[in-house]
Amino acid sequence: MRKNWRPWAITGGIAEGKSTVLGYLNKAGYRTASADEVAREVFHRPDVLRQIEAAFGTADRAELRRRLGADAGARRTLNALLHPPTWVALEQLEVEVVEVPLLVEAALFSHVAGVWVVTCGEEEQRRRLRERLPGEEGATEERTIDELLQVQLPTRVKNAFADRVIRTNLPEADVRREVLEAAKQEFRP
């Protein structure tokens, strides 16, 4: 592991295009990783499972999701257990760009070289979430969307921490071109 490893971070709200932007960079040859994917692997490590069970009385993902949706303190506890080992695992990958949805919430700025915030605007974000919620309709669907959006900081707040804001509610070719041009300018060793 390099001593001063610090990747660029991509962050933003749910359904705003973070993974799409990361995919453009990966296809262009940049070394990339998703903190969420790494966290899923870390979650299943025996030492982490023991800590989660000690803190919550369970490590059942469905039960934890239910609790986390209703309890900000529980979310903070789980994040405190998962974020440090997840970041250590990311360091071992030595990627150039990492997708970190909770970068601002976890105050991980000292770990990254710079921050891109990906956004599409609330109306488009809600439209994308409706597409992701199979089988829900009307008021139930809107309530679920409201709940999903309330557990994260609004993207407009995250924009204050951005070195660059990438808007993904533009034509796909325009977004890809902007991402790749910005990467050439900013992702230098």
Report on this structure.
This protein is 56% helix and 11% strand. The chain is α/β, with parallel strands linked by helices. It has a single domain, classed as 3-Layer(aba) Sandwich (Rossmann fold). The protein has a five-stranded parallel sheet with strand order 2-3-1-4-5. α2 (35-43) crosses α5 (72-93), α3 (46-56) runs antiparallel to α5 and α4 crosses α5. The longest helix has 22 residues, at 72-93. The chain starts with 7 loop residues before the first strand and ends with a helix.
C-alpha end-to-end distance: 15 Å
* Mean pLDDT score: 90
The name of the CATH superfamily reads P-loop containing nucleotide triphosphate hydrolases
Total helices: the number is: 9
What structural category do the secondary elements indicate? alpha/beta
Oligomer: single chain
**Strand order in the sheet with the most strands:** 2-3-1-4-5
How many separate domains make up the residues? Answer: 1
Estimated radius of gyration:
17 Å
Helix content: 55-70%
Pattern of helices and strands: EHEHHHHEEHHHEH
Q: So, CATH architecture?
A: 3-Layer(aba) Sandwich
The coarse overall form would be globular
What is the CATH top level name? Alpha Beta
Largest sheet: 5 strands, parallel
| CATH fold descriptor | Rossmann fold
